[in-house]
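User: I'll paste a sequence; please echo it back and then give the predicted structure.

Assistant: Echoing your sequence first, then the prediction.
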Amino acid sequence: MNRSDLIERLAGQKGLSLNTADAIIHEIFNSMAETLIAGNRIEIRGFGSFEIRQYDGYSGRNPKTGLEVTVKPKKMPFFKVGKELKERIK
C-alpha cells in the first residue's frame, strides 16, 4: 500500500472527497515527521512505535575498491512493531 492507496481507502470508507482525505493523511504524516525531527517518540498502541536512533561514526571499507572510509555519525528513524500487530501478522 502506498500513500495514494491509503488516501483512496480513507475517502471510500469515510465518504470523504479525495482532497479532504489527502489533507488528512498529509497532516498526519507531517505531524509525525515534525515529532520525530524534534527528537520525540511516537507510540500508536497496537500498531507500533517510531523513534530516532543515534548511530556513532565508524571506519568502514568501500566494498568496491577496498579503501577505508570514515562513516559520519547519523540519526535514523526506527520502527518497532507493536504486540497486537505482530500477533495479527502471524
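The first strand starts at residue 42 and ends at 44. The helical segments are 3-14, 18-37, 83-89.
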